[in-house]
């Protein structure tokens, strides 16, 4: 048995690059940064903050959602699989790229927060978008029941 499962929470490094295949399928790619905090060991050694950059690849509905709603600086929760591919560069050297193929994504940035230079998200999230908690739209009228004998 084997498992290839990745869970990441991090910040988007740049707006997604989205392209459409000839068949009309959307593919998005974007970098995600995860950061381990700095800390001090018991012997006094200081370990600095460390940031890892992950190359995310999103397909179909997730790619379209990312194109509309994900911007540089947003915080994301993603689940997916690690995939490594290789290619030959212009000099003929073999290069390797490790990517996270995203299966699910949740946007963790508050809805009203907009990264500098980014358009505000519009209501009506498409398929693959996370459910945002909704505030109560209707307030219940306050009832003045001073004669209630509640035990608490």
From TrEMBL:
Keyword rRNA-binding: no
Gene3D superfamilies associated with the record: Nucleic acid-binding proteins (2.40.50.140)
Assembly and interaction partners: Homotetramer.
Region (Disordered): 111-152
KW DNA-binding (keyword) present: yes
Residue stretches of biased makeup (Polar residues): 134-145
Organism annotation: Bacteroides intestinalis
GO cellular component terms attached to this protein's record: nucleoid
UniProt GO MF annotations: single-stranded DNA binding
InterPro entries (UniProt xref): NA-bd_OB-fold, Primosome_PriB/ssb, ssDNA-bd
Protein keywords: DNA-binding
The name this protein goes by in its record: Single-stranded DNA-binding protein
GO BP annotation list: DNA replication
UniProt cross-references to SUPFAM superfamilies, sorted A to Z: Nucleic acid-binding proteins (SSF50249)
